[in-house]
Write a structure and sequence with these properties.
It comes from Luteibacter yeojuensis. The protein has about 475 residues and is of the alpha/beta class. The chain contains 13 helices and 18 strands.
């Protein structure tokens, strides 16, 4: 072996790296979106750069994990300072960062939701979902059945896969006896004909509540007033499902049903948390109080894994959820908690609530203008800087996955042009039919970069439609 090849100062060319990847890397931990897979070399702000130093405007920012831009100086400096102070400590011991971060989130939740609560940490979103499953099963006497939404996504560990609606994530891994019961989610663009979005929302809630009408509907024992199900896992805005935004009345009406029948609402903020929608938590837009809230991704701007849950006091206090109820070696690690605290402080100091809402309106206006010029854009919508564009056939409705796949390939080829130079575009594909561009740009994206994004999308669509 050439030991020099192990040095980070030695640049190995793309062809050699791809040959080694094909031989030594499991493909099970990633997805090869394009052939050959793309290799990037460095990143800054809203851009990542390939081996030819071509800039790629990133409109998905690591699935909304890098909300505050690549190489954010304030956050990078905080990480460097923590490395020199307390880089590691076993999770059975305490350190200031963990306690401060937990207090910050809990105090903020008390202000917004009016409830006392506590925070509990882990290292990844799916792991936090797993911890929340333990929490709600414990709180509901061991009940292991959950409700979740059609189109919902909560991760790919075994427990998280059981409440994620896509069968393809479970297909090869045996029988899931505790698979969730999946409930329709109001998808405004694809609502039944003749219904307003609000009427569709009402119909979805009524359909759900019918499950509790009699014992023969299968989930409720009226003699003892007890449900078979412990909790309902919700994304306020569906992430992988295509950034579907429900009508504002939906969660208010749903929560009334859940409270009536003693079912906990677990809100998954892993993708939409930390000002992606213009609020710290996206559920704040919808006027309801969660029982449990799960977070991750952008808490550390992608620099060091940290996730967690907030839950109301009666569910998580040490008497009912004692030490050792869950464990991860790296939970509440000092690098991650230092970054998390800095992210929350920075978000409020720099007023991301106002800034994200304003930039989101500008981006959405650009998408609507683009929609007027391309009949293949069937729907655009957004909340803050969580935006969607649904790619269709020229009837403006029939899903067109093939066209979007061509767009992704062209964007990652790096052959678009801006001011006479090559540029690329990084897009994320989502949606029930895999025909939705889910936009999650940096929250620090400039107005000029938003305008550039719209111009590049215009180029991309024009080229992709040529076949």
């Amino acid at each position: 072996m050439n030991l020099k090849s192990l040095s980070p100062d030695i640049v190995i060319d793309d062809a050699a790296l791809l040959a080694d990847e094909a031989k030594y890397c499991s493909f099970g931990d990633t997805v090869h979106y394009v052939d050959p897979p793309k290799i990037f070399r460095h990143a800054e702000g809203s851009y990542i750069y390939d081996s030819e130093n071509i800039p790629f405007l990133d409109l998905q920012m690591w699935y909304s994990a890098v909300n505050f831009g690549y190489g954010n100086k304030r956050l990078n400096d905080r990480l460097k300072a923590q490395i020199d102070l307390l880089p590691q400590v076993a999770s059975q011991y305490l350190h200031q960062g963990k306690i401060e971060l937990a207090k910050t989130i809990a105090v903020d939740a008390k202000k917004k939701f009016g409830l006392d609560g506590r925070c509990h940490f882990n290292v990844g979103g799916a792991q936090a979902v797993e911890d929340s499953l333990k929490l709600v099963r414990n709180a509901r006497g061991g009940k292991s059945l959950m409700f979740a939404f059609e189109g919902g996504y909560h991760g790919r560990t075994l427990g998280a896969s059981s409440i994620t609606s896509s069968y393809r994530y479970r297909r090869r891994f045996g029988h899931f006896g505790e698979r969730a019961q999946f409930i329709p989610f109001p998808y405004p663009f694809r609502r039944p004909k003749g219904m307003t979005p609000e009427e569709y929302s009402d119909a979805c809630v009524r359909q759900f509540e019918r499950l509790f009408e009699t014992e023969y509907n299968g989930v409720w024992d009226p003699k003892v007033g007890e449900a078979e199900y412990a909790a309902f896992y919700v994304e306020p805005i569906q992430g992988t499902g295509g950034y579907v935004i429900p009508p504002k009345n939906f969660f208010i009406d749903l929560k009334k049903v859940l409270d009536k029948y003693g079912i906990l609402m677990v809100v998954d903020e892993i993708q939409m948390g930390f000002w992606r929608t213009g609020k710290l938590w996206s559920i704040e837009h919808f006027g309801v109080t969660p029982d449990v809230l799960v977070f991750g991704k952008a808490l550390t701007n992608g620099l060091n894994p940290l996730s967690g849950i907030w839950a109301r006091e009666e569910l998580i206090n040490p008497t009912v959820f004692p030490p050792g109820s869950t464990h991860s070696t790296f939970n509440s690690n000092p690098l991650g908690t230092a970054l998390g605290l800095e992210v929350i402080q920075m978000g409020y100091e720099l007023d991301y609530e106002t800034r994200v809402a304003e930039k989101g309106r500008h981006f959405l206006d650009g998408l609507r203008d683009l929609q007027k010029r391309h009949k293949e854009i069937g729907d655009v919508d957004g909340l803050g800087l969580a935006l969607r564009a649904e790619i269709c056939t020229d009837d403006g409705f029939t899903p067109n996955k093939a066209l979007l796949d061509r767009m992704v390939d062209i964007g990652l080829a790096g052959g678009l042009t801006h001011e006479g130079k090559k540029i690329g575009l990084v897009l994320d594909v989502g949606g029930w039919y895999k025909n939705v561009i889910t936009f999650a740009p940096s929250l620090d994206i400039s107005h000029d970069e938003i305008d550039l994004a719209i111009a590049l999308l215009d180029q991309l669509l024009t080229l992709a439609k040529r076949g």
